[in-house]
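Consider this today:
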Amino acid sequence: MLIIGIAGGSGSGKTTVVKKIIRALPNSAVSVISQDAYYKDNGHLSADERKKINFDHPSSIEFELLIKHIDWLLSGKEIPMPIYSYVSCARSNETIPVKPTKVVIVEGILVLTNAELRRRMDIKIYVDTDGDDRLMRIIQRDIEERGRSFLEVLKHYEHFVKPMHLQFIDPTKRFADIIIPQGGANQVAIDIVASRIRMNLDEEKTAYENNN
């Protein structure tokens, strides 16, 4: 099993990169684990308290559960990936079953901030996109998907997203094996990553056939 970590700032285009990598690989070879599913359950908080949650700080993620689930996949076990709602800030009672596959992609803004999680990654990727481009995507996403007003998005960006990006997320570039500038628009870099993954899969297949 190949564990790939894909990080980058909020709105950097990580999801587009993940989708393009998946399309370049064999069917059913890839599972995706989203960091966002592992935000701590804060459904018990009031509406005003939920607005103060800092989703861009490493402490907002239940890394212990995420790492445990990665270990389960590595041991061949299916995992119950949580379902998290940004609107209610709570986890659903339902989960998403994720089966072990040849490639597991762990993606999210903070996945390279945790040393234990990094140690389980075979390839670490950072998606690096200009701050203005990221802000435009954040505005559109938060209005459409998270029910925030334009002014709420800007306030949240100023007080949480930007300072946390500078303090925690951008510095994790130094842990990356590969940096993809321009996000999903950089098809050349994505093709190189997909080619390296296919090469690894071919090597595993050859090794398995030689031992059997």
